[in-house]
Structures are given as C-alpha cells and as structure tokens.
Amino acid sequence: MGTRVTTDGNGKNADEPYVITGRGQDAAPKNAFSLFADVNYNAGGPRTKILVIPANGTANNFSDYGFDQSDDGVSSVVNNTGRDNILFTRTNQGGSQLPVPANSSITDLTRIPLSGSPTSTWNDQAQSALAFNKPVPLPVFTAPKPSAQTQERRQTVQGNAAPDVQQVLLHEGTRLLGTCPVKDSTWEYTPDTDWPLGQHDLSAIAVRDDVLSGKAPLRFYVVLPTPVVDIRSPKEGTEVDSGATVDGVAFNADTVTLTEGATQLGTAKVNSNLWSFAREGGWSPGKHSVTAKAVRGGQESAPETVNFTAANKNLTVESTFNSSWQDWQTHKYIHSYDVTLYAGDTDVKHWHVGFGQLPDGSVLAPEFEASFWGMVIHDGSDGNVVLGSPPEGVHIVPAKGHLTLRVLVLIPTQDEAYKKLYGLFAKSLTE
C-alpha cells in the first residue's frame, strides 16, 4: 500500500511532539517515535492519526497534542531512533511500562498482554511516552506541605531533584512561574509579588539536558485570619450545562453567599473548606456572572466572581454518594459514588466525565482501576479524576437513556464534605 502523509501541526521546538496523518509504516518520520491510532500502522483501519515524538522528546499526556485517548488510542508503534523507547499507561510517565527497543516496531498492540486493562492487552492503553530510554525522576516538593494553609503571602516553594537534574520548571496551571536551578539536588522559588489568596495548584517538572520529567503536583492555600473565598468551578468563560453547580473553597468561613447582579441566589454551607451551590431549577440559557462572598460572623471576604454561559447540552451528569469504609491495607477510606450520565436526543459514543477538589493523598481505589473498562485519564493523585469511554464506543450513553459508573475513590479521611463530588462535569467528544 502506498504512503500518504499530511502534516496537521508541528511542535514549538525540535523535540516537541506533533500529529500527522498517514497510512503505512513508511509514514513514520526518521529519528522519531511514532504512535499509530490503528493496528498495522493505520494501513487497513478507519483511523489515520500518528503522534510523532522526536528523539529526546516527551509526550506526558497524548491529549495535549490532539491525540485523544477516547478517539484515537495507540494500536501500533514505530521506533525509528537508536535508543529504546517507553510507553506508559498513565499520563506523566505513570502506570505500567512497555519498552520498545531501538529501531524496532510493533504491528499490533492487541497481541501484547497487559494485566488489568479492559482488553487484557496494550491496545489503546498508552497515555504518555518517551522517545529516549532514561526517564527523568519526578521532582519532590518539601515546602509547603501538601494542603498547607499559610499566611505567608510570599511563601517559598522548595524541593529536591535527582542529582543529574539541572533545573526545575514550576507552573501554576499552564502558567510558568519560574525556572529554578538545582544545586546539591535542591531547588526553590520565591515569588516577586504576593500569592493571591485562596487555593494554588502547582506542578514541577525536572529537566536533564533538555529532557523533561512528568509533572509532580502540589496544592496549598494562602489565607488570612479573615474569610477568604475562591470559585473553582465553573472555569471562567466556559460553557456549562444548565444544571451545573458552582463549587469552590473558603477559609475562616461558615457560609458562602452567592449573588447575580442585585439578585440574591442563596447560601452554601462550608465543610472542610469546601462549598457547593446548586441553583433551584437550574441556570437559564445564556450568559451569567455569579459573585461569591465568604462569611463568618459579621465578617465578609472580598468578592470572587465567575462568568460562564449556560446551555442545554446533549450529555449531562449527576452523582450520588453510596457509603464509605476503611481500606485495611492503606488505612484510608474508600468512598463509593454512582456517577450517572444522561443523553438527550442522540447517542453519546465517546465521552469524558470527571470531578475535582479531592484532598491531597486521594487516588482512585485500585479495585476500581483494575475493573474499569474505560480510560483513566487522571487518577485523582493531582486532585482531579477524569475518566473516558473506551475507543471502541462499546459503553455508549443511549439517546433518552443513561449510563451509571460506580466510582471508588481512596480518600485519607472520612468527612461530611466528601459525600459529594465537586466540579462534576461530563463532556461529549462529538459535540
């Protein structure tokens, strides 16, 4: 079969992954690790995407490059480099590993066994990869401690890194805060301006000779003795379902009051610094601007406002808390939730569903991960869980019907606050 290749996009630098389309093993570029979306190098199937990772490159999350697990997956690979490469079943170089020897290829990953995967094989399971054979260990945060509440407005962030690491890149969300030199295996960052009050989600990436590690997460809070409020969901400027809740964190507060313009919307109780507000009857379609204030006694926080658009979507979601019990191995508590997806007028074959604001130390329960038939995109270790449908579209949400997932999450403690899920969302990938 002849080879047809077109470039969809290219990276920001020579080692940045990018996606092309093509069929046949010859479509794999030289000196790169190429991941094909179909078996036999896309030669006979309907999918044509190829994720190309140049030598010395890293793809910590295939979805970052438009190679989405629920639609694409990895079914065959070509290693056109002189070094062994590695596939991982989790983002940021986590989970199980599959070495792909130098100058070799794998025609069909359905023939490579993988214990615990939905198909018992490596087909469609890889979510991150290296185009070199020496992963860089994750950096470690030493200060502040996970979930720390600090009144130090210029709190220093410190950590350790492997001896051969030269620098650590520190991010908050997608924003680069600083490039931190590593000396004697330690690094630190002190901001030039005050940290904003509220929750901060940082990530650190170790760099060795321009080779990157995965992302190490850290969450901490900057607080004052007075009330502080932060809206975490919906995100600013996003479109949400009309039944979406407004969720967030608050400190030194008993309640959070919510308004829209001059309209009083209601009050949410604060439990373990978490709060959530569901508007009775849902949000009317269109734009909304909601303001929250944390309250304790006669004290009020500064206002926090989020702007979003409400719409009636074809895919919606709700959750129900079932029960919790102590896990004898970890001494943490397994929390059981039923997460139910509802479809409107059409089937939803490919979807993502997730939630966030989990306390540090949380993770999906191992028994759930071992039995779940879809994709685990985020396992809760960074505070967020994101699950995806299997690429085959077997587990669809039928039109006018529903699909229920029983999700088990391992959380360090039991608390009333953890009887609901925060930032719960569902996304149809066909919308």
From TrEMBL:
Q: Where is the composition biased (Polar residues)?
A: 1-10
- Ranges where the record places region Disordered: 1-21
Q: Which GO terms describe its biological process?
A: carbohydrate metabolic process
**Which InterPro entries does the annotation name?**
Ig-like_fold
**Record protein name field:** Bacterial Ig-like domain-containing protein
Per the UniProt entry, what species is this protein from, by scientific name? Streptomyces paromomycinus (Streptomyces rimosus subsp. paromomycinus)
Lineage at the top is: Bacteria, Bacillati, Actinomycetota, Actinomycetes, Kitasatosporales
